[in-house]
Specification:
With 56 residues, the chain is an all-alpha fold. The chain has two helices and no strands. This is D-alanine--D-alanine ligase C-terminal domain-containing protein.
Length: 56
């Protein structure tokens, strides 16, 4: 299984004053949790949306 993440806002909530910075989990743990939840949701929903766009 391959995951590709496209982040539109490159620092959404990851500044020094954000809640993520004050959380007890580090960045890698937060990303792992988000991916696990996404995979679980995709299996519940039964489909995922895939789209490929060439960058210029």
């Amino acid at each position: 299984m391959t995951f590709v993440v496209n982040e539109v806002n490159t620092i959404p909530g990851f500044t020094n004053i954000s809640m993520y910075a004050k959380a007890t989990a580090d960045y890698a743990e937060i990303i792992d949790c988000l991916v696990e939840h996404g995979v679980a949701r995709a299996s519940r929903v039964g489909q995922t949306n895939r789209e490929h766009r060439a960058t210029s």
